[in-house]
Amino acid sequence: MRNIYLIGFMGAGKSTIARELAAQTGAKQIEMDQLIEEQQGMAITEIFAKYGEAHFRDMETELLKSFSREENIVVSCGGGSVLRDENTTIMKESGKIILLTASPETIYERVKDCTDRPILNGNMNVDFIRGLMEKRRERYESVADVTIATDGKSKEEICGEILRQIQV
Ligand code: S3P
Which of 90, 91, 112, 162 is 20 to 30 Å from 6 at the Cα level? Predict the structure, then answer.
C-alpha cells in the first residue's frame, strides 16, 4: 500500500479514521499536528502565537517531504496543509488523498470544547465554520482522489468505504 493522506476541515474525523485505518490495515498512523508539537516542544497555539501561521505552514511542508520517503503510512493531515500546491504534490506523488467531509453543525459539535486550534479560538461558532469551510471547499475537493461524507456514519463504515474505493 502506498500512503494514505486524510484531509478535510478541522473536526472532520481525520484522526479517528486514521487510527481505525491503521488498525485495519497494519499501516502506521501519523498525526501531523502531534508530530509538529513534539518536534517543536510546544503546542500549535503557541507556535502560531510565537512564529505566526506562515512558519507553521513551512513546518507542515517539511514534515510532508519526510513522509514522501515512507511507505504504508496513514497520515492525519492538518486541516490547512492542503492549501499549498507543494504539499498536495507531495501527497499525490506518494499516495492517495482522501477527503473527509461533515456538515458545519457536526463539525461545531465535535470541536466546540477544544481550545487547541488557533484558527477557531475566538471564532467558535457555526457561521465561522461554515464560512471557512466554503472558502476551502473547492481546494479540498479538487485535490482529493476520493471524497467521503461522514455525517451519520460509523468509523467502521467510513473505513470500509475508503478501503473499497482505493482497493487496498
Ligand atoms: C488547521 C487545522 C489543525 C491545525 C491547525 C490549523 C487549519 O489541524 O493544523 O490548528 O488551518 O485547518 P486539524 O485539522 O487536525 O484540527
Answer: 112
Determine the distance separating the centroid of ligand 1 and the alpha carbon of 145, expressed in angstroms.
20
The single residue listed with the C-alpha cell 517539511 is: 62
Centre of ligand 1 to C-alpha 99, Å, is 14
Question: Looking at ligand 1, which residue's alpha carbon is closest to its atom 11?
Answer: 80
Distance CA 39, CA 32 (A): 11
Ligand 1 close to Cβ of residue 117 (< 6 A): yes
Is pTM beyond 0.85 here? Answer: yes
**Cα four-point dihedral sign 82, 86, 91, 92:** positive
Domains identified in the chain and CATH numbers: 3-162 (3.40.50.300)
Distance 78 CA to ligand 1 centre (A): 4
Q: For the segment 27-81, what is each residue's pLDDT rounded down to a tens digit? A: 999 999 999 999 999 999 999 999 999 999 999 999 999 998 899 999 999 999 9
CA 136 and chain centroid, separation? 13
